[in-house]
């Protein structure tokens, strides 16, 4: 009979040990301890060590994110997958809530009228009507472009953004342009990213906060 580790916590513990052992020395050294914890969780989610080289921390994002989470700020997420993956039990301890307006009737109608995506209109609603200050964009480059427009037009000044849309059309370009705004953010360069990466980054922040309570 094959021998294997069956205890969930032991599996996770050993996984993080392997990740740290296999990380390049330069990657271990150039990140702060908190940044390393985020990078390790992203690698744990993806089994892809390239994320250590393409994940950028812009304008003190961790401190800004933790402050907003502790203040119970709402978090806009662009997919239900992100909503499902984030540890809501921990988030709710701080009074936080995940929101998305893509399925709202007014968003549907406005997107149809303008012949644009619901992601674009949903971001506009989050910024103009709901005054959301934290965003996790893991799927739609159009959502990130829309958020950039809202920032440049003065409708919102985000406290923290996770900018990790994935894909071949607009993903790399949207993240490259967003990084120029110097908003406190974690950005994955290039085509890679996705909802699971956004979840990994935000959960890492939640677990750090929860362990420090």
Question: Concise description?
Answer:
The chain is an alpha/beta fold and 213 residues long.
Structural class of the helices, strands and pairings?
alpha/beta
Compute the CA-based radius of gyration.
17 Å
How many domains? The number is 1
Strand content: 5-15%
User: What is the CATH C level class, in words?
Assistant: Alpha Beta
CATH architecture title: 3-Layer(aba) Sandwich
Profile the largest sheet.
6 strands, mixed
Note the gap between the termini: 43 Å
Number of continuous helical runs = 12
SSE series: HHHHEHEHHEHHEHEHEH
- What share of residues is helical? 55-70%
Low-pLDDT segments? none
What do we call the CATH topology?
Rossmann fold
Q: At the fourth CATH level, what is the homologous superfamily?
A: Cobalamin biosynthesis CobH/CbiC, precorrin-8X methylmutase
- Across the major sheet, the strand order is 1-6-5-4-2-3
Q: Total number of β-strand segments?
A: 6
Overall mean pLDDT: 93
Dominant shape: globular
Structure description:
The protein is α/β, with parallel strands linked by helices and 213 residues long. The protein has a single domain, classed as Rossmann fold. Helices cover 56% and strands 11% of the residues. Helix 1 (8-22) packs across helix 3 (33-46) and helix 9 runs parallel beside helix 10 (141-152). 39% of the residues are buried.
